[in-house]
Amino acid sequence: MKVKTILVSQPEPSSEKSPYSRLQEKHKLTINFRPFIHVEGLTAKDVRQQKIDFNNFENIVLTSRNAVDHFFRLCKEMRFTVPDSTKYFCQSEAVAFYLQKYVVYRKRKIYVGERSIQDLESVFKKFQKETFLFPTSDLLKQDVPDYLDHLKIKWQRAILYKTVVSDLSDLRDVYYDILVFFSPSGIESLFKNFPDFKQNNTRIAVYGNSTIKAAEDSNLRIDIKAPTPETPSMTMAIEKYIEEVNK
After folding, report:
1. Residue 213 pLDDT
2. What is the location of CATH 3.40.50.10090 in the chain?
3. Which region, left, alpha or beta, applies to residue 28 given φ > 0 means left and ψ of -120 to 50 means alpha?
4. What is the pLDDT of residue 58?
């Protein structure tokens, strides 16, 4: 069956030069975007119940823009002034650049991994006797905690925000040829919103091993997978599929 409509379970890209725009134009598709999950911040009371005191940390480990937003939101809520001496360990340039929303970049000690937080091992070890705070969501992959443990540094996780299933009830009678997922939480949201969901002719596209497993555990038929050596991005994987079925 030919593909004409696609729903991507993420916010719409801000740039008009998004790969989805090119895909839509080239293949005359209708591509809509709708987050299946969203983030909600925890309160200062929630943080205190975790026995977290921001005064006790000289360094902050940041792996996402959400972590940046919610750390500074809670600092304001708790009337905590972040010392100028605080050092920031950022997973990527994108996270470090986003930090400028809250701090004067050139006046702060900001360390950035070239590709991941693991690139900063020598810097972490330089401050091994200091304390590190790791702001996160309630959902957390184990790779960064395992890495921090491996470094034998003093660190503490602070859950500052949580991932919540979005209300998709207005989509109940809307059908798409392809549904695109990027996380197990997106799959969970699909079935929480539509417990009686039947896949039928709907094609499922998934990104990443954990999302593939979640789809398989939910007995979904996966038609499009990414990344692969041939199609490292989701848009490339979708395009390859469309070129095969829309002949």
Report:
1. 96
2. 5-36+166-245, 40-163
3. left
4. 96
Q: What architecture is domain 40-163?
A: 3-Layer(aba) Sandwich (3.40)
CA distance linking residue 107 with residue 73, whole number of Å = 21
Coil, helix or strand at residue 90: strand
Rounded Cα distance, 183 and 106, in Å:
35
* C-alpha distance across the termini of the chain, in Å: 10
Q: Where are the alpha helices (DSSP H) in 60-155?
A: 65-77, 93-98, 121-126, 143-150
Q: Vertex 216, ends 215 and 218: CA angle to 5°?
A: 65
Average pLDDT, integer, range 9-20:
90
| Tokens 């975007």 -> residue | 33
Task: State the Cα–Cα distance between residues 116 and 134, nearest whole angstrom.
Answer: 15
pLDDT at 129: 94
Q: State mean pLDDT over 206-235.
A: 96
Q: What angle do CA 35, 229, 205 make, to 5 degrees?
A: 30
Banded pLDDT at 14 (limits 50, 70, 90): confident
Over the stretch 137-183, which tens digit does the pLDDT of each residue have?
Answer: 998 889 999 999 999 999 999 999 999 999 999 999 999 999 999 99
DSSP per position, 33-58: E--SEEEEEPPHHHHHHTT--GGG-S
pTM over 0.85: no
The CATH number assigned to the domain with range 5-36+166-245 reads 3.40.50.10090
Q: Which two tokens stand for residue 223?
A: 């038609």
